[in-house]
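Risk register update: the risk of archive-format incompatibility is retired. Evidence:
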Amino acid sequence: MNEADLLRISASLIAVILLIVVGGWLAKRTKLLRPTGKKPLITILDKQGVGPRMHVLLLESEGQKLLLGVTPQQINLLHCFESSAATPESFQHHLQQHQHEQNPTS
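Archived output:
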C-alpha cells in the first residue's frame, strides 16, 4: 500500500463520517426522526418570568390546565383550571392584573 492508497482511503473515511454528521444534522433540523401523529402528554401553553430564575407556567395535561410556580429549587402547583377556564391570553391578563395590584405605582 503506497501513499496514494492511504490518502484515498483517508479521504473516503472522512467523506463518510462527514456524510453521517450532515445527515444527522439534517434529520434533526427537519424533525425526520420524531414520531408523527403522537400528541404529547404535557403541553406548555404559556411561560411568564416573574423574577430571576423564577417562572409561572401554564400547562395542559389530560384536559386539565395547571398553573405552576417554578424556581431552581422546587415546583409548586398554584392553581388547577378546568379545561375551558384558562387560555394563554387570560393567563397573561390575570398575571398582569395581579402584578399591577401588587405594585400600583408601576
